[in-house]
Design a protein that fits this description.
With 125 residues, the protein is an all-alpha fold. It has one domain: HPT domain (Four Helix Bundle (Hemerythrin (Met), subunit A)), CATH 1.20.120. The chain has 5 helices and no strands. Helix 2 runs antiparallel to helix 3 and helix 4 runs antiparallel to helix 5. Pfam families: Hpt. This is Hpt domain-containing protein. GO terms for molecular function: protein kinase activity. InterPro entries: HPT_dom_sf, Sig_transdc_His_kin_Hpt_dom.
Length: 125
Amino acid sequence: MQIDLTNLDLDLTLLNEIADGSDEFIVESIGMFLDQAPDTLQGIANGLENSDWPAAGGAAHKLKATLGFFGMLNSQALLAQIESSCKTGSPDVEELTAKLEQANALITASSAALSKIKEEAAANL
């Protein structure tokens, strides 16, 4: 089954290049992302809610790097904006919360596709 990535914030070119044909690498990489992304997104949300700018910015920074690995460039740009705003020490929480919700929606949609890709790759092991 081929998964349509057309309308997703997802480009697996880099992942496939690094995996160099290894389904095991793809399964492990996607698995780690699917395990860690929800907690990291929650960490950003908690940081924003509690005005803990270093925590929110740090969590955004952590996830931002991972998103690049999966070609989630729109989500990555939103998290970069959150990270940058948190560094100012007095960000617009409403604006950042909206950006986080937008990133979360993109990441959730891409995660569903990644889960299917992981299943397919695992079937090849």
